[in-house]
Amino acid sequence: MAKNTKKTPATTNSTVVPVLKVTDPQQKKADDLGWTFKQSVNNSGVPIMQISKGRILVAEGISAKTALDAAIKIKIDADTARERKVEADAAKDNEKLLKKQKRAAAIKEREDAKADKLAERDAKAKDRTAEKDNRDAAKLKAKEDAKAARETVCAKKAKTREAEKIAKAEKREAEKIERDVKRAEQEEEDGPASLNRSMQTYREQYRKFNDSCGDDLAEMLRSETTKQNKDGDDVLDLKALWRVAKDNGVDYKKYGHLNPGHQRMVISNVLRGMLNKGTDVKVGNKTVKAPPAK
Angle at Cα 144 formed by Cα 142 and Cα 145, nearest 5°? Predict the structure, then answer.
């Protein structure tokens, strides 16, 4: 703090210029603000007090108080102006930020709308694809169902035809067996002469195939049902024939009224009919396989 010193008033043209006093509080205030008091005169020769900051004149007045008040006012005004400028700049920056945010929000809104539109389009495309797939699947299923239905009908018809074929074959076989049985019964009723003629006919036919029908079944039956009598001749083993019939589920007892030769003929035909129907025939410890279905 500069100290006030009493100076002899200066004289200009024999005029005394009074010394302007600076109080201690005024000096302290100026020092705090970095100001300097300096006494001077204006153009009219009136003494004034100037306040400077370095080489810059801040304010002046007719007294230290007047100069200090003016400088403080100027400072306040300057501070206020700076604050207002800061506020204005902040407002501008905020406005710019708001505009930027609005633009960003508008861009995002457009992008979201575009994305929503694309998503909606994709969803519709997926729906159309799904509908088409469903239609195609339904058409395919309908075709497959129709095909399955046709195959089922065809299978039923084929099964029916096969059943009819089997039934006809069974009927023919049954009729043949019935004819054989009736013929055998009739021959036995007609007496030995008729029987001998019939047996002679069979013997002539069988002799061509070593006294058999010439097939595997006949050969296996002949081997299984033949025994030697006390004279060493081959004769029919009727019990063995019955055993073969029983093993294959054939009721041999209903042919018991026929002679042994007729029984072998009828039972052989029954077993041959089983083979024709696809059933394997067991002869002793061997099996005659049924031929594959055509």
Answer: 60
Provide the CA 55 distance to its chain's centre, in angstroms.
87
Query: Residue type at 65?
Result: K
Q: Could you give all domains of the chain from N- to C-terminal order, each with its CATH number?
A: 10-78 (3.30.160), 191-288 (no CATH)
- Phi, psi dihedrals of residue 68, rounded to the nearest 5°: -65, -45
Residue 59: CB atoms within 10 A of its CB come to 19
Residue type, 26: Q
* pLDDT tens, position by position, 61-85: 999 999 999 999 999 999 999 999 9
pTM of the model: 0.36
Smallest CA-to-CA distance from 65 within 26, 33, 97, 14 is with 26
CA distance 72 to 6: 27
Single-letter amino acid, residue 272: R
